[in-house]
Amino acid sequence: MLPIVLIAGGLIAVVGFVVIAAAVWFIGSDSDAPFAGLPVADSTRVDAQQVLPAVKQYVNKRDPKLELVSISVGDHVHGGLADLKRGDLIAFEFVNRATSDAVRVELEARGMRARPAKSSAAAATAPAPACSTEAAWRILSQGSALSNREATFSYRATGGKGVWTIVIADSPPITREVDGESCSVIR
User: Which helix (H) or strand (E) holds 134?
Assistant: First the structure.
C-alpha cells in the first residue's frame, strides 16, 4: 500500500510542477520575448531613421506585409540621438492591414525584440522618414539655446505625410514638428 501512495504522491508533484511551469511560461512569455542583436555599432548614439532598414528587415521575417505606423524615441534624447545604454528606448510600430496584426519592435541596451502591439488596421501608415532624428534636431536647434536640452521624438503620418513631433523638455514643454521627408520645420 505504501508504494502506491508514494507513486501517486510523486505523480501529483510532477503534474503540479508541470502546471506551474506552464503558467509561468504563458504569463511571462510577452515580457521575456527573445532579443536579437542591435543593428548599430555604437548603442550610445542611435538615430531611429538610420536603423529603420534593419528593423524593417527584422520585422519582415515575421510578416512581409507589415507597414510602418509610428516611431517613438526616448524621453531624454540629446542631439537627436538615443543612448540605449543610458536607458533610452526606440519603438517602431507596424500593422498588417489585411490581418489586423500589429507588431512593436523595441530597441534597448539588451538588443532588439518584437512584441504584439495595439495599433489598429485603420491606423494611418507612415512612409519611411528621409529626415533623421539627428538632422531634425540640428535644424530645430540652430542658433538657439535648445541644443543642450532633452527631447522626445515621435514619428507618424499626419496630413498624408510623415512628420516628426519633437517635445523639448522645458517649462512648459516646447512642441515642434518637422517634415519627415524634407527636414523643414512645420511649426
Answer: helix 133-141
49 CA to centre of own chain: 12
Cα separation of 79 and 162, whole Å?
20
111: CB partners within 8 A, 6+ apart: 35, 36, 37, 38
Asked whether 58 and 103 are in contact (CB, 8 A), the reply is: no
Residue ranges of the chain whose pLDDT lies below 70: 1-32, 143, 145
Give the position of cell 528587415.
57
By C-alpha distance, which of 137, 136, 71, 139 is closest to 105? 71
Query: Which of 107, 167, 97, 157 minimizes the C-alpha distance to 128?
Result: 157
Question: Which secondary-structure segment (H or E) carries 108?
Answer: strand 101-108
Nearest to 47 by CA among 174, 137, 181: 137
Report in angstroms the alpha-carbon separations of 11 from 2, 20, 23: 14, 14, 18
The domains of the chain are located at 1-32, 48-179
- Look at residue 24 in the predicted model and tell me its pLDDT: 32
